[in-house]
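Recap quiz, item 2
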Amino acid sequence: MDINIVVVGLGVIGGSYAMALREKGYKNIYAIDLNEDSLRKAESLNIINKGCTEGKKFLKDADIIILSVYPELVKEFINNNKNLFKDGCIITDTTGIKGVIVDDIKKSLPDNVDFVFGHPMAGREKKGIDFATSEVFKGANYIITPIDTNKEKSIKLIEKIALEIGFKKVKRITPQFHDKMVGFTSQLPHAIAVALINSDEEDRDTGSFIGDSYRDLTRIANINAELWCELFLGNKENLLEAINSFEVEMNLIKNAIECEDREKLIRYFNKSSIRREKLE
Amino acid sequence: MDINIVVVGLGVIGGSYAMALREKGYKNIYAIDLNEDSLRKAESLNIINKGCTEGKKFLKDADIIILSVYPELVKEFINNNKNLFKDGCIITDTTGIKGVIVDDIKKSLPDNVDFVFGHPMAGREKKGIDFATSEVFKGANYIITPIDTNKEKSIKLIEKIALEIGFKKVKRITPQFHDKMVGFTSQLPHAIAVALINSDEEDRDTGSFIGDSYRDLTRIANINAELWCELFLGNKENLLEAINSFEVEMNLIKNAIECEDREKLIRYFNKSSIRREKLE
């Protein structure tokens, strides 16, 4: 537990990482963020030893670097700091798309470090360290998309940490399959939630006529616009394919309603019920 | 608390009603259900005094009748029992659609009873008394769709009971507006959830690659097929209109992704975020 961990980006995910690592007994946790308030807050919560707005100070001693920044900034971070990393440093990220960053980063990665691409499938609709909580990782899925230069022991270490801080399952898949899956399981639901609430008519006091179904389906419509814009556009083809498949199913339902075809509706409902039961 | 209440249909909603009423101190609660096991279970939980598979026994003394049965059975119940009701009896229902039943029932309703149409906007994806819980009503919305023959004091009584058992808000609206709203807030989310999970490809271990967004958006895809078939077809026009409006918004998002139009995407996300913040 004496290894030096540096969290880059103390938002809701970075903050949650620091919190969860501290709870598990990691002694040396440092953070880099442009926001002084976030750093001071994390210091006063004692979830980091020290924070700094500038990288040099901590990076040269870092054994593990956890990048919890927007996708575009992951590349920028590597490019800006490639001469600062300690030999044998393991870098990991928390980015929700892999295809657009993995190849670029592979090209610019210095030889003395190992980048294990990771995606903690956990998040909150709110942003910022004020909403950080180690609870968010409990029971969640964690994905690693190995690259050919990864050392097995680096991957194992990132897996071990994921399980330590509460993730239930860690899977290794290719960046391509990752992006196809999250286009469906994560980005499509966000597109749906946004479309659902935006299709409401104004000024009809909708809040008085909702049950848990509408609450659940629109929770993520409160969305970090900049981040999700990057994720949507960075996974364009997969997301469009997922939306199209969804629309095909929606049209089946629509046609069954139009034709008052009870049998078909029941068949779709039974299919969805069985799938949901099996899901977890 | 000495009034006689008869719950007709001891499923998840009827059972939850009996439970919640008992917790609030109602002493005389009876139930009618075709399933003997449900009746015996409710008796042993002491959430009803006595259950019976046949109506006559309890109906003649009932001050309040709560119908928690499928929409089609509400009409049937009134027609089959119209000579049995006690003078001044207040009947209410829990049906998720109103247009298709209100007019029919108005026609066949005997003069000595008052039917206050109600819709508790609470439910669970599981069916049957085993999943009944008084918690389900806590903080939920309750809708009443008055008809011209309703006595104000009957409506007030149903409102009072709704608030007693935990509903947060009770609204009075027309059956037409009710159906328009629930087409959007309840049936559309169910159609979306079913279409979403049915659009998954098979055999790719989706459960390992999901976060809370997919969990939340598909929870209600585990659906009571018979009931929701009735609700969808009984509110056909409103639901189709809601699906169409949703598809318009989804196409806006799709086009913005196709054209990589960041500005538009950000605009949709900001709109949805503001709406979600304001919702409750």
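The first strand of chain B starts at residue 4 and ends at 8.
The mean pLDDT of chain B is 95.
End of item.
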